[in-house]
Design a protein that fits this description.
This protein is mostly helical and 182 residues long. It has one domain (3-181): Four Helix Bundle (Hemerythrin (Met), subunit A). The protein has six helices and no strands. Helix 1 (3-29) packs antiparallel against helix 2 (36-68) and helix 1 runs antiparallel to helix 4 (109-142). The longest helix has 34 residues, at 109-142.
Length: 182
């Protein structure tokens, strides 16, 4: 398996959560009460799986390799990816704060929940398209077989550092829960 295939496997789970978040946000926009558990579980998944683990693999392993091959960190595709990771973190931070306000009794926070979720969904759908259609193809063209083997080993180390034993499977089960509840 190529490292980019491993990252695209992560994208499958992430896109499932994005779809569920979109459905839940649509319900809020249609005047239904926010199902705060769907949003809270999605925040848990995004923070601990999509960001710490998946983006950790990109930011700590893939992007430095691409930099070594001449792609600058501050501009071009890598710079755009990093900017979008930060943008996604801001949306998730806003979503988490809105969930807290909603749970504390502020019903008006439901609009911010939907807005933050929708902002995250749009940003990440576009981000994933750019990675899969542009960046990963560039990476595949640059890296050697040895690079790929080393990256996969780094990915495993990053996953072990960022998640507890069995967490990967637990987060994939959480995706099923989020979809069922959305």
């Amino acid at each position: 398996m190529r490292p980019t295939e491993a990252l695209m496997d992560d994208h499958v789970a992430i896109k499932r959560v994005l779809k569920a978040l979109s459905i839940a946000a649509d319900r809020v926009d249609a005047g239904q009460k926010a199902d705060v558990d769907v949003f809270a579980k999605s925040v848990d998944f995004v923070v601990n799986y999509a960001d710490k683990c998946h983006h950790g693999k990109e930011e700590s392993a893939l992007f430095p390799l691409l930099e070594a091959y001449g792609l600058p960190r501050e501009a071009g595709p890598v710079g755009v990816m990093l900017m979008e990771h930060e943008q996604g973190r801001k949306y998730i931070g806003s979503l988490a704060k809105a969930i807290e306000r909603f749970r504390a009794g502020d019903a008006s926070a439901s609009k911010e929940i939907a807005s933050s979720a929708r902002g995250y969904v749009t940003t990440m759908y576009n981000h994933i398209l750019k990675e899969e259609d542009i960046l990963f193809q560039m990476a595949d063209g640059m890296m050697t077989e040895e690079d790929g083997t080393a990256l996969l080993e780094q990915f495993e180390e990053i996953e072990q550092k960022t998640t507890a034993p069995g967490a990967h499977e637990r987060y994939l089960q959480l995706v099923d829960e989020i979809e069922a509840e959305a």
